[in-house]
Design brief:
Layout (H helix, E strand, L loop, with lengths): L2 H15 L5 H14 L4 H12 L1 E8 L8 H16 L14 E5 L8 H10 L4 H10 L3 E3 L9 H8 L12 E2 L3 E2 L15 E2 L7 E2 L1 E6 L2 E9 L3 H4 L6 E2 L9 H21 L6 E6 L3 H10 L5 E5 L24 E4 L5 E5 L7 E9 L5 E2 L9 E4 L2 H6 L6 H17 L3 E4 L8 H4 L5 H17 L3 E7 L9 E3 L11 E3 L13 E3 H7 L6 E7 H11 L13 E4 L1 E5 L9 E7 L5 E7 L2 E2 L6 E7 H4 L13 E2 L19 H12 L18 E3 L9
Parallel strand pairs: 1-2, 2-3, 3-4, 4-7, 6-8, 9-11, 11-12, 12-14, 19-29, 25-31
Antiparallel strand pairs: 1-15, 5-10, 8-9, 13-14, 15-16, 15-17, 18-22, 19-24, 20-21, 23-29, 23-30, 25-26, 26-27, 27-28
Helix pairs in contact: 4-12, 5-12, 6-12, 9-10, 14-18
């Protein structure tokens, strides 16, 4: 046995014994090898791995979800991605890492002004998004939840080629979704395990991508909560029972994925490298899957917007690393498995350069943090890699920009303050934008039924801020962030602090319809308990509420379903109308009823909300009337409600409610952070 073989055995034994060893420890191990061996010992280990194994450069992302910022960030993303793909540090005319793969773990598009502008610019909504993905060169993409937000008919239209539109030049993947049961997508399903280049415009559980003669298996997986957070039509979601917390549920999901992995490897015994594109919404689930699967080498996580990075990565201003890149786990077969993820919205390119040994097992200490990690796609990030935006993508975004600018000239109100729509805030605490849009829904609902007193919506339906954030010149600290109201757009004749159609439609991209519901006191308590049930350390559940007409307190340390301590109905001036819960006990007649307004998505059990089905009235009529000052959205939609509310209340006098930290929230009081002052 050679010295290098003995060192390899030592490393494997060390790894298996203590998975908690950090990436820094791998560097220490490498140094030990260098000390024990001859000069250049570690370099020799890497060379040996490269000769007998394989070195892969994986460029990845997830949650592209293009909104207005993507007009700049998508071209910048192409500049960084192409620079990394073509990097030639030693100037020998050859890429440093010729074995390159480009993948995404889903949510490649989302209902937004960006998506809808394609209807005018390219003859169909979302086509601009797909054309950008094609130009970027993705080999395969997993289905996320947002792909289904507009129904499976839209998915089919975007995947299929039509006349002057090529559709997706790559396959879409998911091992735990059965598309044969959906009338729109069944015809797009093809056999699993085919070469990706041969199945564009198709759907499969898995595919094979050949990189310079080396076959790499790619399998997709989608959150089993899909039906409660999106609109997958007739698609069958497996496993059917899944809450993301129970070990049995995750084991059942792992079994679904493992079946596809095993089938692919059995049919292709020459393949020993497998990448899973897993869109699970919470990276904790991908990490649990990593320890349950076998034969999988890399998991590209998705849906959680978790920014994994190391100290060598320069992040965008205001961003913080949520964990080391990559996360190394021990798979059920005893081999190391890497979990990677970056923030979404075209804000980062993820880069993993890793060696595989001759058996197709990744070698964790081959991952150099100076090379692998998160690459920011802001202007500084583009300059750092000497990147140049792809001309095709620039042309696509310019075409969309012309359509979008026209929307920025339609003004409905003013604000003196930044309206907080940050994902991490609207899904964990009360925000001023959450309050504003909930109040708007309540005001419109009162026109239909004056007895309406409560408004409840989900924070996950708020997709962006209204306003901008910036930093003082030379600042490098996230706490120095300056949050400002919307800025002027001279091209659209928009003045500073004005709120436009574009601001509204970008923040409320789904434009859900509003629905009146009747619920008794016990049912109201169940709704509010559900709204905070998923709160946990590090979690950003889309079901977290934004409310009007009520105030409540909750203790996140108590078991889900028993967290609400106080709950009161309040009028517009903060006066208590009715006490529903006091000292964690239901007060008064549990059958007394309240009229409320919510989103039709939630009324139909979206995000798992338990709204009763009786006496529901959808405020969007079948003929989708468009009356009043705002006609860009149908009457009874949340975009229209906000536009009309702003025009009625803040056309002359600007909105002025500043956003406050959760320690000062009054409508949604987190008792881990503040005292209960509901009463």
């Amino acid at each position: 046995m050679s010295f290098l073989d003995r060192k390899s055995r030592f490393f494997t034994k060390f790894y298996h014994r203590d998975l908690r060893t950090s990436q820094l420890s791998w560097l220490i191990i490498s140094s030990i090898f260098l000390f024990l061996g001859t000069t250049g010992g570690v370099v020799q280990v890497k060379k040996t791995a490269q000769k007998s194994g394989f070195t892969l450069q994986l460029l990845h992302t997830s949650d592209q979800e293009a909104g207005v910022p993507a007009l700049k960030d998508a071209p910048n993303f192409s500049a960084v991605l192409n620079a990394l793909k073509n990097q030639d540090a030693n100037r020998d005319g050859k890429p440093d890492y010729p074995n390159t793969l480009i993948l995404s773990s889903g949510d490649a598009y989302i209902p937004s002004p960006f998506l809808f502008a394609s209807d005018t610019a390219f003859g169909g909504q979302g086509r601009g998004d797909i054309l950008i993905l094609n130009a970027l060169g993705f080999g395969a993409i997993a289905f996320g939840n947002h792909e289904f937000d507009l129904g499976t008919g839209v998915v089919a239209d975007l995947l299929r080629a039509k006349e002057d539109y090529p559709g997706t030049k790559f396959p879409y993947l998911s091992a735990n979704l059965d598309f044969s049961t959906d009338k729109d997508l069944a015809k797009l399903v093809t056999a699993d395990g085919q070469e990706a280049s041969k199945i564009p415009n198709k759907i499969a559980r898995s595919t094979i991508i050949t990189v310079n003669g080396e076959k790499i298996a790619v399998v997709g997986a989608t959150t089993p909560t899909l039906r409660t957070i999106s609109s997958p039509g007739g698609v069958t979601v497996l496993p059917k029972e899944f809450n993301g917390r129970d070990a049995a549920d995750i084991a059942a999901l792992a079994a679904e994925i493992q079946t596809s992995v095993d089938t692919l490897l059995t049919k292709n015994p020459e393949i020993n490298k497998v990448i899973l594109l897993a869109h699970m919404q919470q990276i904790a689930i991908e990490q649990k899957l990593a320890q349950l699967l076998k034969g999988v080498d890399i998991i590209v996580a998705g849906g959680s917007n978790t920014l994994l990075a190391d100290k060598t990565d320069r992040l965008r201003m205001g961003n913080k690393s949520a964990g080391t890149y990559p996360i190394i786990k021990k798979a059920s077969d005893g081999n190391p498995i890497a979990v990677v993820n970056t923030d979404g919205n075209y804000r980062y390119v993820g880069r993993l350069v890793v060696n595989f040994d001759a058996k197709g097992v990744i070698i964790p200490f081959s991952i150099d943090p100076k090379i692998s990690g998160a690459y920011a796609t802001d202007s500084q990030g583009v300059a750092a890699v000497d990147g140049k935006p792809d001309a095709k993508i620039v042309a696509i975004t310019e075409a969309l920009k012309k359509v979008i600018i026209a929307q920025d000239s339609q003004i409905f109100g003013k604000t003196n303050v930044f309206l907080n729509g940050w994902r991490g805030d609207v899904r964990t605490q009360e925000t001023n934008l959450g309050n504003l849009t909930a109040e708007a829904n309540l005001a419109i609902a009162k026109r239909y039924d004056p007895k309406t007193v409560i408004s409840v919506k989900n924070g996950g339906g708020i997709r962006d801020n209204i306003g901008i954030y910036t930093f003082p010149p030379g600042s490098t600290r996230s706490q120095d962030v300056i949050k400002l109201p919307p800025q002027a757009n001279p091209v659209a004749a928009k003045k500073e602090k004005e709120i436009s159609q574009l601001d509204i439609s970008n923040a409320l991209r789904f434009n859900n319809g509003l629905t009146l519901v009747t619920l008794n006191a016990r049912e109201l308590l169940a709704v509010i308990e559900h709204s905070v049930a998923a709160i946990a350390p590090g979690a950003t559940p889309g079901s977290f509420p934004q409310v009007a007409g009520l105030a409540f307190s909750f203790d996140p340390d108590l078991p889900a379903g028993k967290r609400v301590k106080s709950l009161a109905i309040k009028d517009g001036k903060g006066k208590i109308i009715d006490v529903v819960v006091k000292n964690a006990e239901l007060v008064g007649d549990s059958n007394r009823i309240f009229r409320a307004v919510t989103l039709n998505f939630l009324a139909n059990s979206g995000d798992g909300y338990p709204f009763p089905k009786r006496e529901q009235v959808d405020l969007i009529s079948k003929d989708a009337k468009r009356t009043g000052l705002a006609t860009f959205g149908a009457d009874g939609s949340e975009q229209d409600a906000l536009a009309e509310y702003l025009a009625a209340n803040f056309k002359q006098i600007p909105f002025a409610q500043e956003d406050v930290p959760p320690t000062k929230d009054t409508r949604i009081q987190n008792l881990k952070l503040r005292k209960d002052v509901v009463f």
